[in-house]
Design a protein that fits this description.
Structural class: mainly alpha
CATH topology: Four Helix Bundle (Hemerythrin (Met), subunit A)
Radius of gyration: 15 Å
Order of helices and strands: HHHH
CATH superfamily: dinb family like domain
Number of strands: 0
CATH architecture: Up-down Bundle
CATH class: Mainly Alpha
Distance between the termini: 29 Å
Mean pLDDT: 79
Low-confidence stretches: none
Shape: globular
Number of helices: 4
Strand content: under 5%
Number of domains: 1
Helix content: 40-55%
Largest sheet: none
Length: about 120
């Protein structure tokens, strides 16, 4: 299955893409900033995933639906992240990752996304 984002929901220029992407990333970062790596691993209740998972999931979303969709030769950061951060796989068992690894993933995808947005300008 190939997922695409409807053009009706996308801005018209690369600079708008870059701004929106940076706004989303900045909001995620600001929400997580007060938390220590240990705090990011805590699951406050059964129906809510830990902060580190949400950061990884939004990064996975950008990688899967933006970068992979626009790069024919794109190589994923880590093939296991498709399972790890895809919420539809929740019933398949436990998934473990450190907040430091999630941060590295975010940084890598942010750099790649910035390069892609420059092509749209």
């Amino acid at each position: 299955m190939t997922a695409t984002v409807s053009q009706a929901y996308l801005p018209n220029s690369g600079s708008a893409y870059t701004r929106r992407y940076k706004d989303v990333r900045a909001r995620s970062e600001s929400l997580a900033a007060p938390l220590s790596p240990e705090d990011q691993q805590v699951q406050s209740m059964p129906d809510a995933s830990p902060t580190k998972w949400h950061l990884g999931h939004t990064t996975w979303f950008f990688e899967t639906f933006i970068l992979r969709a626009h790069h024919n030769d794109y190589r994923v950061f880590d093939p296991s992240f498709g399972y790890l951060f895809n919420s539809y796989y929740e019933a398949m068992g436990l998934r473990r990752i450190t907040p430091r690894c999630v941060k590295g993933y975010q940084t890598d995808i942010a750099c790649r996304s910035h390069g892609l947005s420059q092509r749209w300008i």
